[in-house]
Amino acid sequence: MRLIIPVTWLMLLLPAVMTGAPAARALVYQAEAARLHPERAEAVAHAPFKDGYGVALKPGVTAAHPSDNTPPDLVFTVNEPTAGRFVLRTYAAVDPAGAEQMRRATSKHASLFADFQIDSQRPTRRVIFVPWSTPESCTQVLGIFDLTNGAQSIKVWLPPHVRFDRLEVHPYRAPAVPQEADSYRPSVRPPVGHPRLWVTRTSLARVRSKLDHPEHAAQWRAVRKLADKPVNVLFPENAEMAHNAALENAAAAKAFVYLMSGDARHGREAVRLMREYLSRVAFGNLLDITRETGAAIYAAARVYDWCHALCTSDDREILRRHMMRLAEEMECGWPPFKGSVVNGHGNEAMINRDLLAMSIALHDEDPVPYRYCAYRLLEELVPMRRFEYHSPRHNQGVSYAAYRFGWEMHAAWLFRRMTEREVFDPNIKTVPLYWLNMRLPNGEMLRDGDGIPSGRYYSYAQTALLCYAYNNDPLLKGEFLRQGGKAADPLLYLLLNDPALRAEPDLTTLPLTTDFGPVLSGMITRTDWNMGSNASHTVVAEIKGGGYHFGNHQHADAGAIQLYYRGLQVADLGQYKFYGTPYDLNFNKRSVAHSMVLAVDPGETFLKTPANDGGSRFLQTHPRTPLQLQDTPLFQYGRKLSCGFGPSALRPSYSYYAADLRAAYSPKIAAFARSFCFLNLGRPDHPACVIVLDDIRTADPAFKKYWQINTLQPPRRTTEGVQLHNAVNGVTGRVDVCLLRPAPEDRTLEIKSGSDVYDVFGYTVTPPVATQPEANGHRVLFSPRQARAHDTFLVLLQAYDDSVAPLPYTLAESAECVILRIADRIVCLARGGRLLKGPLDITVPADGTRYEVVLAGLAPGTWRISAPHGETTAESVAGNHTLSFISAAGRCRITR
């Protein structure tokens, strides 16, 4: 066997399991130098490998496994000078047939697995190739293993189509504990005694008293039925057990029934099942397996806590030891200081639920786990969210937000039920408004971030349960019922639901317009709260306004707009299948997939991606603290200039938003202000229109600008722009996109369809799901004909019924503002993000119409309005910067 001692830089490449101080060295074993099974395996040439060779199964040989009593395909002899814990890492590739198999893969479960066995230890099954890797090379960390000193054999059974390059052995280093965490003494601590997960001795009686309520009857019957059902499972003596969610759920149900009824038979069975299972289960290294690992810890923690009185000292020690074993295998490691708790997987169940529950359950026997988990949550997560939730939305977008926020709500609830006090800022209760506002009349959601499915009612029922119960909110309970009224975890429903809280199905008490504040800035507005078949005249619009960027699943979409009318008309075209693929990083997460302004600097790069889409800055890193967020220009992504709507705050006729988006782009943009005005026209044939005004200046006149909107159905060219269309339930709606500036003779128009949509100025990607609407969309790009540094884009978008034509309009301009008249509205918009200081003169035509005059972008203060109906005064409030009035025909003069 050939042995290579590599340089220590290899240690820097290792993921979660390799943390703390770097090891002194790693041992590398080339596969072709191992002992090969002469009838099954052979050395093969593979140029991308460093030494040009690897090992594969011989042609026609099928995969074998240790359980078949088939000898291994290859055997490494490992010589470690000292015994200890080590990380094993593999490098592999696939042949052309394997590459095609991976190309067709639809999930991580299509990964390629090999079996490994160290001497006579239990064999283990591990991933060595994943679908999103390039065929030439894939690196996988197998996990943490115990090795003795001296010679040991590592046996490998290969899958077909894999070319195995090498095995690396690295000493394991646990994550370092920060000094502050090591000396931390939480002010919030678990009470003495059990139970204390989800209930205490005080709250247990309240939960028991509600079990027989009609709202709980079906779920309580289902839990008791599951608890009564025998679990037929074989616990092998010398083999791993695979993850068994059904067993975990059954054990938790039995423990819950014991907790609620005192039936010791169920409690003892829960303890037995979890003890035998936890001592055998192995989760391997499948992508994101930390979620399943954590679920096992969480199930064991509930059994430990709820059945504590039934556990023997041996039971408790076995459960404790194996919970800690699995904790070490989680992505955050143990101690749990690998990675961030405010974003990424560390913000999911790992610490918020699984390890926190474990630490609460074990606190009497060992207070250290709780000290670590409490530090990460109370001193890191809670302060960050206190700042972030000044904007009532989540930075990871609709889908990942519902998932991750649900885990934060687990932490909020576990602390509250344990201590009868809330540890998160009260503004956490405003975040669920985000999902209510993102809801579209057809049940889908406005797109935000990764992974939003189309074609069905978007459901986040368990998170909705956690939120409505925490907030005691009837509107959120109504949303939970619209999503089926059934949580993924029936125990959670029985623990949290209050039957006395009556659900409110009617959303009309919500305002039509929401300002999302300064952190995740933007505005969503709509004509009404009609849903389903009653919503054929409903228009919903959104503008993203910048604020801060938090990386990960958040997109590069500062200033992006969306518009819904009988289907999405102005839409996002990205799809999310796998994280980090060429499509994901060069299209899905990027500005090009959104409806926003692009400016192409030929020399610009976006991280290490090959595509230059001309968009806003692309971030994948994220801030850890509020101070870092506010003090680091990297995360600053534009700022809200104003958001004003009225005259009714609940049912506004106009909604105005303006943002300075320069910071969202690289220095290629010298200045960029976007203004957006939504008019609720109150007409079934012409329900709404939107005015978008962009003033943009590039650092170099040669940087070409594109005003882009994306749509799902083929657009039609018109003399003034394009016409969009879509349909819901066979009813067609149209949107007329009229580009008022630049004028037709001063601009070009390009419509990209088919594969051209995914040509990102010379770099081509392929959408992962060809049958989805987003894979068959269109990009509409307006561009100034003449190169210059400063350009103005002024666009009018009208939503109208298929049976009528767009409304006529008039436009007047000055150096300070544009004035557009349409229907019974006259709108004056300030240019360039500047505030109007007056005087303003507006003429209302003598056509028998009483017009609402909307002034947007006014300096704050008292304004005097001289109009045909007389003189009045009105206040322009800082941050709002709008006012409106009704006027008959004549001249109106507005002064300060």
Could you please describe the fold and organization of this structure?
This protein is an alpha+beta fold and 896 residues long. It has four domains: 3-171, Galactose-binding domain-like (Jelly Rolls); 179-496, Alpha/alpha barrel (Glycosyltransferase), CATH 1.50.10.100; 518-802, Beta-galactosidase, Chain A, domain 5, CATH 2.70.98; 810-896, Immunoglobulin-like (Sandwich), CATH 2.60.40. 23% of the residues lie in helices and 29% in strands. The protein has an eight-stranded antiparallel beta sheet with strand order 19-20-21-22-31-26-25-24, with no helix packed on it. The longest helix has 23 residues, at 397-419.
Indicate the topology.
Blueprint: E1 3-4, E2 27-30, E3 35-36, E4 41-45, E5 53-57, E6 74-80, E7 84-94, H1 96-103, E8 112-118, E9 124-129, E10 138-147, E11 150-157, E12 162-171, H2 179-182, H3 201-209, H4 214-228, H5 245-261, H6 264-278, H7 290-306, H8 313-329, H9 349-361, H10 368-388, H11 397-419, H12 433-438, H13 461-471, H14 474-482, H15 490-496, E13 513-515, E14 520-526, E15 539-547, E16 561-565, E17 568-570, H16 582-588, E18 597-600, H17 626-631, E19 639-646, E20 654-660, E21 669-680, E22 688-698, E23 704-711, E24 716-717, E25 721-728, E26 731-741, E27 747-752, E28 759-760, E29 763-764, E30 778-784, E31 790-801, E32 809-813, E33 817-822, E34 825-830, E35 840-844, E36 851-856, E37 861-867, E38 870-876, E39 882-887, E40 890-895
